[in-house]
C-alpha cells in the first residue's frame, strides 16, 4: 500500500498527540510531534532566564542551539544541545514559553526545515498548528482537530494531575485561551484550518470515536 503524509493540526489540548500516536501504531507510520520542538526552544529560553519577549536575545541563543529529534521504537525523543529533554519539555511551565517563542519567524523557519526533512520519506503523521497550511501543504490527508477550550483544559488538567503536577483548572483554561490567541493571531504561519482539511470536533467524542473517523478518512484517500 502506498504511504501518504497526514497533517493533524488544531489548538492546544485537542487530542492531536493522542490520536496521532494511536494512528501511527495502527498504520505502521511515524508520528512527529512538532510542538515538542517549540517546547525545546521554550525550555532553553526559560532555563537561561531570558524573557520570552526578548526577541534579540532569543535569536542570539537560537544560533547557538542544537535541536535534534530521534525516533526510537516509534517514540520521539528530543535533544537540546545534546541533552535528552523529552520529559523536561512537558513540564507545565514550559508551555507558555513555547507559545511565545513560536511567534518568532526565525524560530519557525528553523524548525520547519527539520520537520520537512523528517517528512520526506512519507508515512508520516505530523501534528502541530501549521502543518497542513505551511509545513506540509501537499499532505494527502489533513485533519483539524478541535474541542471547546473548557474540554481541552479539563483534559490537560487530568493529564497533568495524573503525572503528579499540582495544577489549577482555571489557570490552565486561561493559559489555553492565551495560547490559542497567540497561535491564531501571529503574523507568520498562524493557526488556521487548511482549505482542504477536515474539521473534527472532539468535544463529545471518545478517543476511539475520533480514531475511527480519521481511519475512515484515511481509507478514502488511500
Ligand atoms: O502542541 P504543544 O502544545 O506541545 O505546542 C507547544 C506550543 O508550540 C503551542 O502553544 C504553539 O504555540 C507552538 N506550536 C506552533 N506550531 C506548531 C506546533 C506547536 O506554533 N507546529
TrEMBL record:
One of its GO terms (molecular function) is kinase activity. Its main location: cytoplasm. It catalyses: CMP + ATP = CDP + ADP; dCMP + ATP = dCDP + ADP. Residues 6-218 form the Cytidylate kinase domain. It is found in: Cytoplasm. ATP binds at residues 10-18. The keyword Nucleotide-binding applies. Keywords: ATP-binding, Cytoplasm, Kinase, Nucleotide-binding, Transferase. InterPro entries: Cytidylate_kin, Cytidylate_kinase_dom, P-loop_NTPase. Its EC number is 2.7.4.25. Transmembrane segments: none annotated. It is an enzyme of class 2 (transferase). PANTHER family: CYTIDYLATE KINASE (PTHR21299:SF2), CYTIDYLATE KINASE/PANTOATE-BETA-ALANINE LIGASE (PTHR21299). Belongs to the cytidylate kinase family. Type 1 subfamily. This is Cytidylate kinase. It comes from Caldicellulosiruptor naganoensis.
Amino acid at each position: 500500500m502506498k504511504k501518504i503524509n497526514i497533517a493533524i493540526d488544531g489548538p492546544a489540548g485537542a487530542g492531536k498527540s493522542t490520536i496521532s500516536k494511536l494512528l501511527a501504531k495502527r498504520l505502521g507510520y511515524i508520528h512527529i510531534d512538532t510542538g515538542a520542538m517549540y517546547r525545546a526552544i521554550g525550555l532553553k529560553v526559560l532555563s537561561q532566564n531570558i524573557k520570552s519577549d526578548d526577541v534579540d536575545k532569543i535569536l542570539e541563543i537560537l544560533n547557538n542551539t542544537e535541536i535534534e529529534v530521534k525516533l526510537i521504537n516509534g517514540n520521539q525523543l528530543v535533544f537540546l544541545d545534546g541533552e535528552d529533554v523529552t520529559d523536561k519539555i512537558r513540564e507545565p511551565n514550559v508551555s507558555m514559553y513555547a507559545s511565545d517563542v513560536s511567534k518568532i519567524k526565525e524560530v519557525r523557519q528553523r524548525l520547519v526545515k527539520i520537520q520537512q526533512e523528517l517528512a520526506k520519506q512519507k508515512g508520516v503523521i505530523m501534528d502541530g498548528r501549521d502543518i497542513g497550511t505551511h509545513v506540509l501543504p501537499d499532505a494527502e490527508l489533513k485533519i483539524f482537530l478541535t474541542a471547546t477550550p473548557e474540554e481541552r483544559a479539563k483534559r490537560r488538567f487530568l493529564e497533568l494531575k495524573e503525572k503528579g503536577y499540582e495544577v489549577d483548572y482555571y489557570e490552565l483554561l486561561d493559559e489555553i485561551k492565551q495560547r490559542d490567541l497567540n497561535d491564531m493571531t501571529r503574523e507568520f504561519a498562524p493557526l488556521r484550518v487548511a482549505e482542504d482539511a477536515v474539521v473534527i470536533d472532539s468535544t463529545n467524542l471518545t478517543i476511539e470515536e475520533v480514531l475511527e473517523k480519521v481511519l475512515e478518512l484515511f481509507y478514502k484517500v488511500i
